[in-house]
From TrEMBL:
Residues 1-25 are annotated as: Disordered. InterPro entries: Rossmann-like_a/b/a_fold. Gene3D superfamilies: HUPs. Keywords: Nucleotidyltransferase, Transferase. Residues 15-25 have a biased composition (Polar residues). GO terms for molecular function: FMN adenylyltransferase activity. Its EC number is 2.7.7.2. It comes from the Eukaryota. This is 3'-phosphoadenosine 5'-phosphosulfate sulfotransferase. The gene is FAD1.
Length: 83
């Protein structure tokens, strides 16, 4: 399988952001991870599709992001009382 359609700096395997014990790497804050993922998704969506599967995946990703955006606008996040 070719990695030609992956965004730059995409992780090559699951768990690449965690240590061998499943704990987050101390240098990777949630904010940093979210920013990196945002950049990778933006790069993927901005790239010209190389085939029909990539084009459909980009279209579905845009739909999914719209659904998430709408949910974040419509519903508030309830924090536990212990916070």
């Amino acid at each position: 399988m070719s990695n030609a359609s992956l965004p730059p700096n995409a992780p090559m395997m699951n768990g690449s952001l965690t240590s061998s014990h499943g704990e987050a790497d101390a240098s990777s804050s949630l904010e940093h991870i979210c920013a990196r993922l945002h950049s990778q998704v933006d790069s993927f969506l901005a790239a010209p599709p190389s085939d029909d599967v990539t084009k459909r995946t980009q279209e579905q990703t845009k739909i999914t992001l719209g659904v998430i955006e709408k949910a974040l606008e419509d519903y508030e996040l309830a924090y536990p009382a212990v916070w």
